[in-house]
Structure formats: C-alpha cells, structure tokens
Request: fold
Amino acid sequence: VYPILDLEQFFTDIHRYMRYLEEAVILTLQDYGIDAGRVEGLTGVWIDGDNAAKARKICAMGVKSSRWVTMHGIGFNVNTDLSYFSHIVPCGINDKAVTSMQKELGGPQDIQEVFGHLLRHLQELFEFDVK
Reply:
C-alpha cells in the first residue's frame, strides 16, 4: 500500500504519519481477531512483539516524503509467500520471524476485503474521504 498524501493538508510530522500507518494496520488486524502492536525501537507492525522469542513482523514500512508529499509505504503481509524471506534479512533484522494474515489465520484472506478495512481505518485516522 503506497499512499500519496500531501501532509501539509494534515500535519507536517513524518513520525506521526508512520505511526498512523502502523495504527491503521493494527486496527485492521484487530478486525480479524489478530492482536498486533509495535516493538519499541523498531518500525512496522508485530505480533507477539512483547515476547522476543516469538515476535514476528506482519507489516514492514518504507516511507519517504518530499516537500511533505509522501511516497512509498507499507508492505502488509496478507497472503504473502513467506518462503521468499528465507533469501533475505528483512529490514536488516535477522533474529525475528516474518508472518502473514494467511499464516496467522490458517488460510488465505480476501485481499479486497482486507484493503477495505485498511482504507476505512486510514480514513478515520487521517479524517478524509476517498471519492
């Protein structure tokens, strides 16, 4: 998901923007009964983040802004083939696992439905409507 927003229309704080993106994912996961959150000092959304041995990342972030216009965004693992992660060190973190909604819930998820939840939460957090 790569939102393109003019943050001058909302707030000029890239850290707040990143926390809002994380929060939208956390709320979306809650809609599906998945308890997720943040890990202090690390960006993204985590499951069991308070347990170092079990922590697994479900959403990575790569954000940039130029003149307060955002680019890039989040990699939210919904039905992701996690085998690809065995060939890289995701986000430079080699002691944590990666997961997906499919893995956590035991089956594939309807991507359009998940996106609908995510979009609704983004609209609520940023207080905007998509037309």
The CA atoms of residues 81 and 100 lie 9 Å apart. The first strand starts at residue 36 and ends at 39. The radius of gyration is 15 Å. Strands lie at 36-39, 42-47, 56-66, 69-76, 97-98.
